[in-house]
Amino acid sequence: MRAPARLLLHAAATEQPPPPAPVVDSDMVVILASFLCALVCVLGLALVSRCAYCRLHSSSSGDNNNEQLPPKAKGLKKKVIDALPTVAFAAPPCSASASECAICLAEFAEGDALRVLPRCAHAFHAACVDAWLRTRATCPSCRATILESRREPAGACGRCGGQQQVAAAGAGDGHTTFLP
């Protein structure tokens, strides 16, 4: 028993103490942190200036090409909306034509009041398209502007350019009938 204890004491005495930890100068830490912050600020300013430069040149290039985007369409006034033609729906003899409102997706019923847009001749429930036209001045289907332009004839579809038929069958009650 004495021998193992002597070995432990001898081994403990021969071990060398660990070297002291390096001393960190607090001034050096402050200087390095300042340089790091300055680097981040310079990189951020460089990115912001690059973005501003690209944006400036991209907007001025449109002026050089004389390409101007049309102004964003706003909604129509109630007086203009009320002036749009309203017709009563009559079921067509064949079921191949469009017989649902593209806004509410409900089927047109016999006698429903439909509003026909003058430029593209698309028809919608009057209440649905009135709400749409208060916020936008375009057709919900083809995005054609509601007011007629002099370049395209009335009744031309904005998407395909074809003529859509709107026939008036006088019923004597002041309403016309929509026949697709």
UniProtKB/TrEMBL annotation:
EC numbers for this chain: 2.3.2.27
Q: Which reaction does it catalyse?
A: S-ubiquitinyl-[E2 ubiquitin-conjugating enzyme]-L-cysteine + [acceptor protein]-L-lysine = [E2 ubiquitin-conjugating enzyme]-L-cysteine + N(6)-ubiquitinyl-[acceptor protein]-L-lysine
Q: Which CDD domains match?
A: RING-H2_EL5-like (cd16461)
Q: Which InterPro entries does the protein's record reference?
A: RING-type_E3_ligase_ATL, Znf_RING, Znf_RING/FYVE/PHD
Pathway assignment reads:
Protein modification; protein ubiquitination
Q: Which SMART domains match?
A: FANCL_C, RING
TM ranges: 28-48
Which GO terms fall under molecular function for this chain's record?
ubiquitin protein ligase activity; zinc ion binding
Protein name as annotated: RING-type E3 ubiquitin transferase
UniProt organism field:
Panicum virgatum
Starting at the broadest rank, the lineage of the source organism is: Eukaryota, Viridiplantae, Streptophyta, Embryophyta, Tracheophyta
